[in-house]
Design brief:
single chain, alpha/beta, Cytidine Deaminase, domain 2, 5 strands, 20% strand, EC 3.5.4.33, metal-binding, APOBEC/CMP_deaminase_Zn-bd
């Protein structure tokens, strides 16, 4: 499968978050061409500021794999990760991060800052940005427009 195919699965997760009144961000973790974890934001549901799609997906992937080291896995997420999530991605030793649209207010893997670019880390994550960017951006724009109108 291509990056776009995996990102479409992350968009399904984002749509689930949207329908639950959560900021519509979805994440999928893939290992050996198999989805090992899926998640979407659950901050409102859990009343937990750390319940980001990426964090929940990493937790589920670690449980599925039986290890916190996700060295050959790729994370697909609809929005550029924040500093907390970027740190978790490094800690999980993910091989790849693929995201849809930049977060110009809080992104930490290329826009506001780039946590992945520090040379002192003992792990390097390959980052691909802009996969299905329009679709990933549109769901967020629609969500916040609906919120403002209510």
């Amino acid at each position: 499968m291509l990056h776009q195919d995996w990102m479409r699965l992350a968009l399904i997760q984002a749509q689930m978050a949207y329908e639950q009144g959560e900021v519509p961000i979805g994440a999928v973790i893939v290992h050996n061409d198999t989805v090992i974890a899926e998640a979407h934001n659950e901050k409102e549901l859990r009343n937990d500021p750390t319940a980001h799609a990426e964090i929940l997906a990493i937790q589920r992937a670690a449980e599925t794999m039986g290890t916190w080291r996700l060295t050959d896995a790729s994370l697909y997420v609809t929005l550029e990760p924040c500093p907390m999530c970027a740190g978790a991605i490094l800690q999980a030793r993910l091989k790849n991060l693929v995201y849809g649209t930049m977060d110009l207010k809080g992104g930490a893997t290329g826009s506001v800052l780039n946590v992945m670019d520090f040379k002192l880390w003992n792990h390097k994550v390959e980052v691909v940005a802009g996969v299905l960017e329009d679709e990933c951006s549109d769901i967020l724009k629609h969500f916040f427009k609906r919120l403002r109108n209510n």
